[in-house]
Amino acid sequence: KNQLVPEKEGNWTVDLATGEAMSIYDAAMRSIARGIPLIVLAGKEYGAGSSRDWAAKGTTLLGVKAVIAESYERIHRSNLVGMGVLPLGFEPGQNRETLGLTGREAYSISGVAFGPVPGGKVTIRAKAEDGRETVFRAVVRLNSPVEVEYYRHGGILPRVLRMFMGQ
Q1: Which H helix or E strand runs over 54?
Q2: pTM above 0.85, yes or no
Q3: How far apart, in whole angstroms, are the C-alpha atoms of residue 14 and residue 105?
Q4: pLDDT for position 116
Q5: With left for phi above 0 and alpha for psi between -120 and 50, is residue 115 left, alpha or beta?
């Protein structure tokens, strides 16, 4: 259930630039056209019941660069990494609600540029529309050096292509 549009079920979200309710696809395409990368704030068992790799492909094609979740369905987390999406976890006892996050904030993630470390931490700054800033730490949910390598290259396919090209 998308909490940005609690009155609607299914494929709905809000274009945060205009406040207009619309399909997730249309809003994502607008964000991509504006050059705005997206993140997902998620609850527990993010990705459970999904169609596995297609769900991660869809996430990538919608312009999502990171997911911050309370927990992940195991295979979906791995598929996100394979598609170049950074899986992050809220620290124990924290979630979107306890941090007062609405999903309407502007987010920045620091601690990734020089290579995330499996199980390491990143700092997230969420700036609300009223200027209030929430700063919190999140756990990097990359589980191995191989996953770090895939993420660093933007996913498995770009990594394999660079390997064949000798880069």
Answers
A1: helix 53-61
A2: yes
A3: 13
A4: 86
A5: left
